[in-house]
């Protein structure tokens, strides 16, 4: 993948399926897609049956779907996409007002690429979809990266720096807390915009401890300081614990650059939409 090219839709004339019982939501998402990709073909579907019919008529390059449909669920849509697409990579995004609770309870399946919570609003939804079709760089944003493997850290650092992100890497949770404390006291040259941490770290503290201390001890909310946790643990209960502790999202290993940077850029854009950085 060339540097800076994070587009999930490589085709200049992609076919995108938007599945939602609400005509307004279908129009909103369609308008965003047409603004970013003038040659896009938007296929609107109100039901699972319509989605299956559209898939039978031709390949799609991206799918957004509501979680609840009149005749089924978005998870059934996601499964149908995977069965139709075969080995092709097709992002499937669930757009729902209940996305966060479903995420925390690990109800999404491996067929779902990502999710968006409608509670974040239409502007955030537009930014989220833009991240998949035409990502916008956030030059100068600073990521505090906690990873105890120097080899893994170097690879991941390069992924982030290729997209104009600044990276401050530390090996231990304790080092991260020292930097965050210095920043909160105005004694640091760094201003951190996001924390990226592995869940398993050497020493007494883990990625879970980082999430909990940032949210409780420092009092930083999810929009004040987003946290992404990298994990290779497929246990849904353990993943749920991370999200319920206050992680904004998870990045599953092995790390895929396009998905990692897309998630980082979205959280950064979302945080900036909240306005000037204040404790919340």
Automatic annotation (TrEMBL):
All copies of domain Response regulatory, residue ranges: 15-133, 142-268
Alphabetical list of InterPro entries matching this protein: Bact_response_regulator, CheY-like_superfamily, Sig_transdc_resp-reg_receiver
Residues annotated with 4-aspartylphosphate modification: 198
Keyword Phosphoprotein (UniProt): yes
A Pfam family annotated for this UniProt entry: Response_reg
Superkingdom of origin organism: Bacteria
Keyword Phosphoprotein appears in the UniProt entry: yes
CDD domains in alphabetical order: REC
Any one of the GO BP annotations: phosphorelay signal transduction system
Keywords in alphabetical order: Phosphoprotein
The protein's name in its UniProt record: Two-component system response regulator
Protein's organism: Pseudoxanthomonas spadix (strain BD-a59)
Lineage, broadest ranks: Bacteria, Pseudomonadati, Pseudomonadota, Gammaproteobacteria, Lysobacterales
């Amino acid at each position: 993948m060339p540097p800076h090219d994070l587009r999930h839709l490589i085709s200049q004339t992609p076919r995108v399926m938007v599945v939602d019982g609400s005509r307004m939501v279908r129009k909103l998402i369609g308008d965003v897609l047409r603004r970013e990709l003038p040659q896009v073909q938007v296929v609107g579907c109100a039901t699972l049956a319509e989605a299956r019919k559209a898939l039978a008529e031709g390949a799609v390059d991206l799918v957004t779907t509501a979680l609840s449909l009149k005749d089924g669920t978005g998870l059934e849509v996601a499964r149908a996409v995977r069965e139709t697409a075969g080995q092709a990579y097709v992002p499937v995004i669930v757009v729902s007002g209940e996305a966060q609770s479903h995420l925390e309870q690990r109800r999404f399946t491996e067929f779902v690429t990502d999710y968006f919570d409608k509670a974040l609003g239409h502007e955030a939804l537009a930014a989220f979809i833009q991240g998949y079709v035409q990502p916008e760089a956030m030059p100068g944003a600073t990521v505090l990266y906690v990873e105890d493997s120097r080899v893994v850290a170097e690879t991941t650092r390069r992924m982030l720096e290729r997209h104009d992100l600044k990276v401050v890497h530390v090996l231990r949770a304790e080092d991260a807390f020292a930097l965050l404390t210095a920043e909160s006291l105005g004694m640091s040259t760094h201003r951190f915009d996001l924390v990226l941490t592995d869940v398993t770290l050497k020493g007494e503290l883990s990625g879970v401890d980082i999430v909990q201390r940032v949210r409780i001890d420092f009092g930083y909310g999810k929009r004040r300081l987003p946290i992404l946790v990298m994990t290779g643990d497929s246990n849904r209960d353990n993943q749920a614990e991370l999200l319920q502790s206050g992680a904004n999202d998870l990045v599953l290993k092995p790390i895929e650059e396009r998905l990692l940077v897309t998630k980082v850029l979205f959280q950064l854009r979302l945080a900036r939409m909240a306005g000037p950085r204040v404790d919340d």
